[in-house]
Write a structure and sequence with these properties.
Chain lengths: 146, 512
């Protein structure tokens, strides 16, 4: 028997890389225009969620293990906060990006890139974690028991 | 001051950010720590460091005056500022110190109550809740308050729900709290939206200045004020909005009850003071109307009704929870008197009640830990089976009633004097009546414990089975504090009164 979802699968296989690519466009464009870590994180998570919807939760969990998700959530926060800690070590106020480079505006730029990466990581992981948490729920009553 | 010079200069300078950032980042690290014991140590050290820093900041405020920290070097009103002054510093120290007390107690308690796999995330959520509360108190930016309010609330829902391993009703309680808390936060942020519309700024000091220029502003500011008071009222369990509180306190893990009872509602009350007296000014006619009639009204009604409800609870934890609602009423009455003395009394009761209720809930947790006791009828003979724990419970209970030489007496007397000075004799009567009600609901438990005999198991009297030392130490520290404040040992009583007077002077504008 043929796969009934063949069109969906072929189309989404085409789409998913572009969705992920668009996420990174939004991420790195965020310095100079609309966009940034939060939006990019949601788009990137949407790519994974689409994969899970079309190919099943198990396949998605193989591609993107829940243990990574948990670490990603923490790592994102730590990347953001760590940027602040670095500025502390360099002797300035918390999150004063200016000290990260010789010229203050370069420092601002580096700082915001690091922070936005942290946000990307945290938001992507959290969105996927929420999806996994709801997707993995077992129905309390079996269909046959009704 | 001598003690102040012992603190590293960096810690004092960066302290305001340090007390938020440290628990926040450590929360993220603790969440992925593999070892549960390591997670406990990490959390304990974080709370200790924060307490030390908060203590340093408090001393700094008293010797050098209020300090302003600019996040990321952006000056207010554009950047987020952290403000440490005579009003926020004592509450900061209170929250941090109660977190340490709770963490010491948490070691045996969580082993009994939380599944092994969930312990590290539990500590992580606790640290996030702690970071949120510290942030709520220290920030000088109104929207930032909302962010930290949500950080602390959302982690609180999670840790309340973790009580499900012990009592399934925790799930319903956490859900109830989630709904009510979200409504409260929504009301708060709607109020902020109106204020932003009126003033065009989110910085509290700037907002206050613009509102004063506008002489209270238009109806938009008035509506915003209403939303903020209701939102914060939900968070601090102001009387008719308190329905989430008994469940959340009674069914959450015992260390969470201790921490929530002594800090969460206090931070919300602090914010109410901040908004009604510094952001808005009591000279605006809508502000003073709310303070004088609404806060006093719900405060007094809450004192009486919640005390009555406390008497008729079968579950001792719910008795204490309703008593907390009643105590919020005392604080609101103090705020509503709106004189320096009245606010000082309310503020002092805020600090004292945290210590008293913390002690009571610690003892409650120990009773559950040893015998699984929660109902009042099960207290029979506890003075013989757990004398030290019951002793701590009794002294904290007496302090709650307001017996002389305890902390509760000091704040109740100050409150009564403030009410009498204002000529509110009916308020004095209410304070006396509710203290009598407190005698009944605490006395009911003490009667069973001291005059009942221990239950018989297989024909033998239940044996003495004292709580572990890790529980007794934090409990007796709080009891000792309560007595020290009441009898002014080591000048602690005077220091507490002075702290509350300075906070009140700051609010009514005499200068802190």
């Amino acid at each position: 028997m043929r796969d009934p979802h063949v069109i969906l699968r072929v189309v989404s296989k085409f789409l998913i890389p572009f969705i992920a690519l668009f996420a990174f466009y939004v991420q790195f464009h965020g310095d100079f225009g609309p966009g940034g870590g939060f939006q990019a994180g949601v788009i990137l998570a949407a790519a994974v969620i689409l994969y899970a919807l079309i190919f099943g939760l198990e396949a998605a969990k193989e591609a993107f293990p829940p243990s990574w998700v948990r670490i990603g959530m923490s790592l994102g926060v730590l990347l953001y906060g760590g940027t602040g800690v670095v500025t502390w070590i360099l002797g300035a106020d918390f999150l004063s990006y200016g000290v990260l480079a010789e010229k203050s505006y370069h420092g601002q730029h580096y700082g915001i890139i690091a922070v936005e990466l942290g946000i990307l990581l945290a938001v992507t992981s959290v969105m996927i974690a929420i999806f996994y948490a709801f997707g993995s729920r077992q129905p309390e009553t079996d269909e046959g028991d009704w | 001051m001598d003690i102040l010079s012992l603190f590293p200069a960096w810690l004092l300078e960066q302290g305001p950010a340090f007390v938020i950032v440290l628990p926040l980042l450590m929360g993220a690290i603790v969440a992925i720590l593999p070892s549960r014991t390591l997670a406990w140590w990490a959390a304990l050290i974080v709370t200790l460091l924060c307490s030390v820093t908060a203590f340093g900041l408090l001393l700094q405020v008293y010797s050098e005056g209020a300090s302003l920290y600019t996040m990321g070097g952006w000056d207010p009103p554009h950047g987020i500022s952290l403000v440490v002054d005579a009003l926020s510093a004592p509450v900061l120290l209170l929250i941090a110190a109660m977190a340490v007390v709770t963490m010491v107690y948490a070691m045996p308690a969580t082993i009994a109550e939380i599944e092994p796999k969930k312990r590290a995330p539990f500590y992580a959520a606790f640290l996030l809740c702690f970071a949120g509360l510290m942030g709520m108190v220290i920030t000088g930016d109104a929207f930032n308050v909302f962010v930290f309010l949500e950080v602390s609330s959302i982690s609180t829902y999670a840790i309340v729900a973790m009580g499900a391993a012990r009592d399934r009703r925790a799930l319903a309680a956490a859900y109830n709290y989630l709904i009510m808390g979200s409504i409260g936060a929504t009301f708060f942020v709607i109020g902020l939206g109106f204020l932003f519309m009126e003033t065009g700024t989110l910085n509290m000091a700037d907002m206050s200045r613009i509102l004063a220029d506008l002489d209270g502003g238009s109806r938009v500011a008035m509506v915003g004020f209403g939303f903020i008071v209701v939102g914060l009222g939900l968070k601090m369990a102001m009387f008719p909005l308190h329905t989430w509180l008994p469940g959340a306190y009674a069914y959450s893990p015992t260390m969470v009850s201790v921490f929530l009872a002594s800090t969460a509602t206090k931070a919300a009350l602090y914010l109410l003071l901040r908004f009604t007296f510094t952001v808005f000014d009591p000279s605006f006619n809508y502000d003073i109307v709310v303070v004088k009639y609404v806060l006093v009204g719900v405060g007094v009604v809450g004192m009486i009704f919640a005390s009555l409800q406390a008497i008729f609870q079968t579950d001792a934890r719910r008795t204490l929870a309703y008593s907390s609602v009643a105590q919020v009423g005392y604080m609101l009455l103090g705020v509503g008197i709106a004189t320096a003395a009245g606010i000082a009394a309310g503020y002092l009761h805020l600090l004292n009640h945290a210590i008293i209720k913390g002690g009571l809930f610690l003892a409650m947790g120990a009773f559950w830990y040893r015998f699984g006791i929660t109902r009042v009828t099960d207290f029979n003979g506890l003075s013989k089976t757990m004398p030290w724990t019951m002793g701590a419970f009794m002294i904290s209970g007496l302090s709650l009633i307001g017996v002389p030489f305890t902390a509760g007496f000091v704040s109740k007397v100050n409150l009564t004097i403030a009410a009498a000075d204002k000529g509110w004799w009916w308020a004095v009567a209410v304070i006396v009546v509710t203290s009598v009600l407190a005698i009944i609901y605490i006395g009911r438990i003490l009667l069973a414990a001291y005059f009942g005999s221990p239950p018989e198991i297989d024909g033998e009297m239940a044996k003495r089975n004292e709580a572990p030392l890790m529980m007794l130490i934090p409990m007796w520290i709080l009891v000792f504090l309560s007595i020290s404040i009441g009898s002014n040992l080591f000048g602690l009583g005077d220091n507490f009164v002075m702290a509350s007077e300075r906070a009140a002077n700051l609010l009514v504008g005499i200068g802190g």
